[in-house]
Amino acid sequence: MKESYISDLYVFEEKGKPGRREEQVQVKKGRGIRGDLHFEDPDAPVSICTCFVKEWMKRQEVEGLCFQRFKANIWIETQGEPSGFQKGMQIRCGEASLKIRRGKSRCFQECARVQKGLPCLLKKECWYAVSLSDGRIRVGDCVNY
After folding, report:
1. Radius of gyration of the chain (CA)
2. Can you give the pLDDT of all 145 residues of the chain as single tens digits?
3. Which of 27, 68, 74, 109 pairs with 138 at a CA distance of 20 to 30 A?
4. Between the CA of residue 9 and those of 6, 24, 43, 138, what are the distances in Å?
């Protein structure tokens, strides 16, 4: 079992608007983060990404279209490694359990990275999940998977 921790938490109330950084969030079983725009998304209401990808994006000479568009609710510090998450995997974040439903589904043809044939870690390390239990998630909580 890998151990990592919650680096940052965000709630996005409106599409296209910046998120609000929180020290803790509440998740509801079968749903997502209370107060978030995607709280009731039946497919995958919680977006997750690793700090590994955040740092990778900063180092890229060619910025991908999604570098600015993608908004994660949960940022996980994985000690400088990719997460290893997979569809169907269950992860424990603080008091809550989440199930990975899917990864980032597609890239856009207008993306400079796609046009240049460059890889994008967002496609591999951006995940969407649903909560399997009610609970609180706090910045600094361990993430077990």
Report:
1. 15
2. 456 999 999 999 998 888 999 999 999 999 999 999 999 988 889 999 999 999 999 999 999 988 888 889 999 998 767 677 889 999 999 999 999 998 877 788 899 999 999 998 888 888 999 999 999 999 999 999 8
3. 68
4. 7, 7, 20, 8
